Amino acid sequence: MRLEKLGEFGFIARVAELVGEPEGAVVEGIGDDAAVLKTSGDCYVLVTTDAFVEGRHFRREWLSAEQIGMRAACAALSDIAAMGGEARAVLLSVGLPPGEDAAFGEQLVRGLHDVARSWDASLAGGDTFATPAGVWLDVVVVGEVDRPWLRSTARPDDILLVSGTLGGAAAAFHLLESGRAANADALPAALRSRFTRPTPQLALAQALRQLPEPPAAIDISDGLVQDAGHIAERSAVALTIEAPCLPVSPACAEAAVQPDADPVPWALTGGEEYELLLALPPAYADQAVAEAQKVGVMLTRIGSVSKGLGVTVLASDGSPMELPQGGWDHFAVQ
Amino acid sequence: MRLEKLGEFGFIARVAELVGEPEGAVVEGIGDDAAVLKTSGDCYVLVTTDAFVEGRHFRREWLSAEQIGMRAACAALSDIAAMGGEARAVLLSVGLPPGEDAAFGEQLVRGLHDVARSWDASLAGGDTFATPAGVWLDVVVVGEVDRPWLRSTARPDDILLVSGTLGGAAAAFHLLESGRAANADALPAALRSRFTRPTPQLALAQALRQLPEPPAAIDISDGLVQDAGHIAERSAVALTIEAPCLPVSPACAEAAVQPDADPVPWALTGGEEYELLLALPPAYADQAVAEAQKVGVMLTRIGSVSKGLGVTVLASDGSPMELPQGGWDHFAVQ
Question: Which residues on B lie below 8 Å from A105 (Cβ)?
Answer without folding.
Answer: 3, 11, 15
